[in-house]
Amino acid sequence: MRIGIYGSSFDPITYSHLFTAATVARRRRLDKVIFVPCSSLRHDKKLQTDDEHRLNMLKMALETSAHKKNSLGEPLFEISTVEMDALPGETYTYDTMNHLRKKYPNDELYFIMGSDLLAGLSSWGNAEKLVSQFQFIVMSREGYPSADLIAEDPLLRNHDEHFLIMSKGINMGISSTYIRDEIRKGGDPSFLLPDVCLQYIYEKGIYREIRE
């Protein structure tokens, strides 16, 4: 199989996340996209709600997309809690990809990322192993030219064959930050995320204040 690994904080998951996953799966002929919510142990993420809530909302969102199937008639989307379950010091993307490679030894794995992350990729934990051993699907984003960012970085350009660059073909300006801000300020983020997730947020009183 060809499997896309989609890691993010999903704090909360948005329709942009779902659209990205579906677009990449269709255009890159992926048989499965695995959503990997990041660990609360990561120091580079300032999460705004508990792991339990992020995971619950992700499950709800993917249930609304249960009609999405691969060529074998199996669900196109699934979730892995490998990062949430990781021990301290084992939360790097390389650790995640290595774990999933062991789980799917005969399949092709692709890490799905936005081009805005390319500039800092060389500073990620075990970056050399990550870039040299795995393949990436890079979603182009305005202001972050993928080809130029790869060419400017010695590590990335020496493994440029591992980067598959694609454009969504549409700019969806929906971010988790925007949704959180709308909720905190009494706005209405309807239509930016699944209704069931928004209802859950209101019921649990999530995102009313910024976590420092």
Brief summary of the model shown:
The protein is of the alpha/beta class and about 210 residues long. The protein is built from 8 helices and 6 strands; from the N terminus they run E-H-E-H-E-H-E-H-E-H-H-E-H-H.
The quaternary organization reads as single chain
The termini sit apart by: 41 Å
**Number of extended strands:** 6
Helix share, percent: 25-40%
Task: Please state how the strands of the largest beta sheet are arranged side by side.
Answer: 3-2-1-4-5-6
Summarize the structure in words:
The mean pLDDT is 92. It is built from 8 helices and 6 strands, in the order βαβαβαβαβααβαα. Strands 3-2-1-4-5-6 form a 6-stranded parallel beta sheet, with helices on both faces. It starts with a strand and ends in an 8-residue tail after the last helix. The protein has helices spanning 15-27, 51-63, 93-103, 127-133, 146-152, 154-157, 176-184, 195-204, and strands at 2-8, 32-37, 77-79, 108-114, 135-139, 163-166. It is globular. Helices cover 35% and strands 15% of the residues. It has 212 residues and is α/β, with parallel strands linked by helices.
